[in-house]
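Researcher: I'd like a candidate sequence for this fold, 282 residues long. If you have to choose between options at a position, lean toward the conservative one.
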């Protein structure tokens, strides 16, 4: 006989922004009983536009899990407000990547947790499936419920230690916003070459996707390509000579990181030449 799976308890999602909407829509699609607590008229309008049901006072009083999908700086205040409304047995769970459980305040007998999807959600209708989620809680029962939630949403569970939340979140930010920021530098480099932003993105986005496919298939070091992988310090020097200083300031540290990543593929002579080409100008 297979082990009993956790049930789908009543959920209140506090916040009707992009992540709150995406979580609510994803859970509703898997038949979780979900209500959305939206305080402002604009938030209520967004929830209704998504076809979501707004939470009544009775819904909040019956909730078993409350997901806080609010800005990081609002977590503590909203948590304090909801503690007075939720039943004593309801779990309070924030969805902030960098915050520990301490952000929810003193437990006061309540179960606390965090559930942070590693997804760049730009619209509430975005699917979360195929990504990961960081889960943290001291409660075995809540962990099982959150893992069932992750399974239904198509998310792979990561367990993150509370003391390392900031490092975990920094890595997540680098892999999403960091890539976008790097692309902005690449677009600027193509602008110097006389290529418009529209044409640059049309050319660079498929290139970025092909690089990610290489990493997905062969790993970081084996998936890395370009002049540094070939040990071509002359090309690297030409790049730096052609780039405006603000783009060069992005190119240099990323390229030095790449040399360290694939150092085993380079001869000592190539490593030395690349290090010289990438040295900071004074």
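Model: Candidate sequence:
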């Amino acid at each position: 006989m297979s082990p009993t799976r956790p049930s789908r308890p009543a959920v209140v999602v506090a916040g009707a922004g992009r992540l709150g909407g995406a979580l609510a829509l994803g859970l509703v699609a898997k038949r979780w009983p979900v209500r959305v607590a939206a305080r402002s008229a604009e938030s209520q309008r967004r929830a209704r536009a998504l076809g979501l049901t707004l939470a009544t006072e009775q819904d909040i009083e019956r909730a078993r899990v409350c997901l806080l999908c609010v800005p990081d700086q609002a977590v503590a205040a909203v948590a304090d407000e909801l503690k007075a409304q939720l039943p004593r047995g309801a779990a309070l769970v924030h969805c902030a990547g960098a915050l520990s459980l301490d952000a929810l305040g003193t437990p006061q007998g309540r179960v606390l947790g965090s559930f942070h999807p590693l997804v760049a959600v730009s619209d509430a209708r975005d699917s979360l499936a195929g990504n990961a989620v960081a889960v943290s809680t001291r409660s075995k029962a809540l962990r099982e419920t959150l893992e069932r939630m992750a399974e239904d949403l198509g998310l792979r569970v990561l367990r993150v230690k509370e003391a390392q939340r900031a490092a975990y979140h920094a890595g997540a930010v680098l892999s999403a916003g960091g890539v976008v920021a790097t692309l902005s530098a690449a677009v600027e480099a193509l602008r110097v070459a006389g290529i418009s932003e529209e044409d640059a993105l049309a050319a660079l986005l498929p290139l970025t996707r092909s690089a990610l496919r290489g990493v997905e298939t062969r790993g970081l070091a084996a998936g890395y390509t370009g002049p540094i992988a070939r040990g071509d310090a002359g090309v690297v020097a030409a790049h730096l000579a052609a780039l405006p200083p603000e783009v060069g300031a992005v190119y240099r540290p990323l390229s030095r990181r790449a040399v360290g990543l694939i150092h085993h593929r380079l001869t000592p002579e190539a490593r030395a030449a690349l290090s010289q080409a990438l040295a900071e100008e004074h």
